[in-house]
Structure formats: structure tokens, C-alpha cells
Amino acid sequence: MTEQLLLRVERLVVEYPGGRHRAPVRANDDVSIEIAPGETLGLVGESGSGKSTLGDAILGFAPVVSGRIWFKDEDIAQASPGRRRELTRLIQPIFQNPFGSLNPARTIGATLREGLLAHRLASPSQADQRVAQWLDIVGLPPETADRYPSDFSGGQRQRVAIARALIMEPELVICDEAVSALDLSIQAQVLNLLSDLKRRTGLAYLFISHDMAVVEHMSDRVAVLHHGRVVEQGPAADIVNHPSQPYTKALLEAVPLPDPVAQRARRATRKEAHEPTQ
Ligand SMILES: Nc1ncnc2c1ncn2[C@@H]1O[C@H](COP(=O)(O)OP(=O)(O)O)[C@@H](O)[C@H]1O
Ligand SMILES: [Mg+2]
Prior knowledge:
Mean pLDDT: 91
Number of strands: 10
Shape: globular
Low-confidence stretches: none
CATH superfamily: P-loop containing nucleotide triphosphate hydrolases
Structural class: alpha/beta
Bound molecules: adenosine-5'-diphosphate, magnesium ion
Number of helices: 11
CATH class: Alpha Beta
CATH architecture: 3-Layer(aba) Sandwich
């Protein structure tokens, strides 16, 4: 594998097995993507297109049928449980609903300390200080450590989820609809935080969202997924300004424009495009 790449997914096929009355679902079909260190690859596509499946496959919890997932020079598609455990530190997820992934019965401090100690990133005496540092970095007050997830709003919880991921010093963070549940103004704050952290630490993101505007804002390059296949990928500006696929154009048209005049103009163009031509 080329030395400068952090992640290379090669011809990945992921299939959820069928049941007695259910056909198997091929959720990723021959997917290939690459991420360089410090780069953000946006992954966009409508609901059900296979975005989360790709993130889950990289994290080691989707049923990979074939293909390779190179993390640096190692194929991790079929990593052993022991190696997988080490990889969980280097590849961290941030999901849409942090409440689902934060233990409601544990203080935020205990949750953040847990990973540090499990992976021996800090001694018990250093851990509290590291937790305080990270709470500060993500913009939460120190007393957050003694509180519980239910004490916080969605945006604050997402900051906790970011601290929990970043405190592990990962090299790749998989953000799966990380801001999709948040109000627009809070979304912007959390996106800015994610961008700042990338600049500070040089980590790379796989940034998954159904929202093309968010993906464009965050990404160096973008891959467009449709029915489990990558239909288009390239520099974010090229994909947004010169989409080659009708599917990508349709995704772009679903993005609300900030300017009402532009919005009206676009509506008019779309109407023309959909009118019969005879
Ligand atoms: N655990 C699962 N078992 C069976 N089918 C699944 C499972 N997870 C996802 N799928 C199916 O795989 C396809 C892709 O889903 P997903 O990767 O979640 O898409 P996205 O994140 O783009 O919305 C969908 O058809 C979905 O119903
Ligand atoms: Mg999803």
C-alpha cells in the first residue's frame, strides 16, 4: 500500500445475512475509498445508501464478505479480536446519538477516564488531569466531570462524545451523522470544534452525513454512495460545482440555499427540467 495513505478500502463487499423471510442485504458493493493522514473524506448519500455500513466495517462491526481495509500497512478487514481491541483506540467513532453510547449511570469523568486507563494512555493519577484538559478543549467546564449524561443538552453531549473519542489520541475518527440531531446553530459550533481539533492534532476524518452542505463544509474530498456503490468521488469543490452523476445533482438540489433568490431560481430551473419537452 502507498506509504502516505492512512486508510484504503479496496473493493469492499458487506452483506447482512438474510433470515427465513428476509433476503440478504448487500449494503456495500465493491466500495473503494482512500484517506490520507490529516485528510477529511466526506461520505454522502441518501438514507439507506450504505454510509454507516462502511463506517461500521472500518470499525470492525459489519459483516465483511470480501475486500480489504488497509489501515496503514495492515489489512484490518479480518483483524483478530486482540488486534481489533488495539485498533479501537486508533480508529474512534462519533455517532449521531451520544446518549445511546454514553453510559447514563456513569459520570462523564468516569467515562472519559475509562478509555485512558484501559489502553494505558495515562496512570490513574494523571487521568483526572487529562480529562480536565480535554473538557476544556471541547469547551465544557471542569465540573462536567462529576455530572451525568442526562444533565446535558444534545450539543453538550456531543462535545463529551468528541472528548471521549479524541482523548484516545486516535489517527482516524469516523463521524457518523455526528451533528445531524442538533439544531443548526449548535451544528455549526460542533463542526467548528471538529475542524479546530483536526488542525490541532492532524487526525483524519471519515465524515459521514446525508447532508451535502455539511459534507462540503467539512471535507477535502467527497465520495458519493448510492445503493451501496461509490458513484462519484473527488475534491469537494469539484463534486459540488461539477457533479458528473445525476444522483449527485439530486443530492445537491436537496440542499437548502441560504439566499431566497437563489432558492427561487433553482426551483424554477428544476421545474423546467422536469417538464415534458414536447
Ligand atoms: N444490521 C443490519 N441488518 C440488516 N440490514 C441492515 C443492517 N444495517 C443496515 N442494513 C441495511 O443496509 C442498507 C444500508 O444501511 P446503512 O449503512 O445504515 O445506510 P445509511 O447509513 O446510508 O443510511 C440499508 O438497506 C439497511 O436497511
Ligand atoms: Mg447511517
